Amino acid sequence: MAVDIETLKLLYFQNDEPCPYKLKCGYELNIYPIKVKDWGIYEHSISILQIDKNKINDIQIIQMSYLEYLYNLYSVNSEYGTYVANIMEYSLGESRVAFSKYKGKIVITLLDDNNIVKGYITHKEFDEIKKIILYQNIYDYKDIYIDADVQQLYEDYYKIKYKNGKVPSLEEQKTYVLSKCGYTMEYLNNLSYRMFSQIFKHCVEDTVYIGKKIIQGSYKYKVDEDIQHPLYEKEKDKFSEIFEDTSVLSNKGISGAEQLNNLNLQ
Questions:
Q1: β-pairing, 28-31 with 19-22?
Q2: Which residues pair with 106 in a beta bridge?
Q3: Tens digits of residue pLDDT in 202-222
């Protein structure tokens, strides 16, 4: 049975509760939301779950399972083993794990404190667990195929348009939320990152909204747009801005910008 993300959102994600997942071997895991205090370490590890290996121009890699692909990365660079271990520990609460083979396939073996096997995660189960982890911790995550041309233009667009801006660090995001909400650092650190990232977004959007409404109410400025509170605005795909404003890329001579609307975004 495929993972039903919408049901998991209703039952677990929105309630900040761990998501149960029973392996075929009989062992039951809990998949925990990552807390803010652990995100600084974890965010480097979660990136290994977001590699689109099927865009790598190598038929052998394309034919691999994702788990086998990670094992191959680990075989070349042991740092990937640390990333996998972090995911197993922080998301699954499993601190003793190892790559091994079961019925000729790469699996992740789960061990107890005496190195006795408790269970193992197959490549198909890993794909499902990976999907749950990404949706659980990144509130606006979308598991969709993005055409390589669109992805490249998206990266070019934001590099050009926001070249004078910056992405606030986690520490800056935390202090901003503290200043707006009056939380203690202890309370904030024990929030899930999923909830914290939404609180940060709401704080920023509220400030921008109030500023726009003040300008709209001033006789000095004419504002034609309908300014709605962000909570009631129709959700936009993160790629929509480049489709609406191709001039940023075209003015910089980025090839293909004028053809954006013809590209495949599925």
A1: antiparallel
A2: 101
A3: 999 999 888 878 877 776 777
As a three-state string, the secondary structure of 39-78 is HHHHHHHHHHHCCCHHHCCCHHHHHCCHHHHHHHHHHHCC
Kindly list the distances between the CA atom of residue 122 and the CA atoms of 105, 234, 245, in Å, as whole numbers in the listed order.
Answer: 8, 39, 44
What span, in angstroms and rounded, lies between the C-alpha atoms of 242 and 100? 44
Q: What is the pTM for the complete model shown?
A: 0.84
Question: Is the Cα dihedral 16, 168, 88, 94 positive or negative?
Answer: negative
- 157: closest CA among 235, 83, 240, 50? 240
> Could you tell me which of 92, 99, 101 has the C-alpha nearest to residue 73?
99
C-alpha distances out from residue 30 to 38, 44, 136, 237, Å: 17, 21, 12, 31
Closest CA to 195 of 36, 5, 38, 89: 36
Tell me the sheet residues that pair with 35: 192
Report how far Cα 63 is from the mean position of its chain's Cα atoms. 24
User: Which stretches of 66-147 are DSSP H helices?
Assistant: 66-76, 79-92, 123-137
Predicted confidence band at 265 (pLDDT cuts at 50, 70, 90)? very low
Q: What are phi and psi of 62, to 5 degrees?
A: -60, -35
What pLDDT digit, counting tens, does each position of 48-71 carry?
Answer: 999 998 888 889 999 999 999 999
How many Cα atoms within 13 Å fall on the side-chain side of residue 196?
27
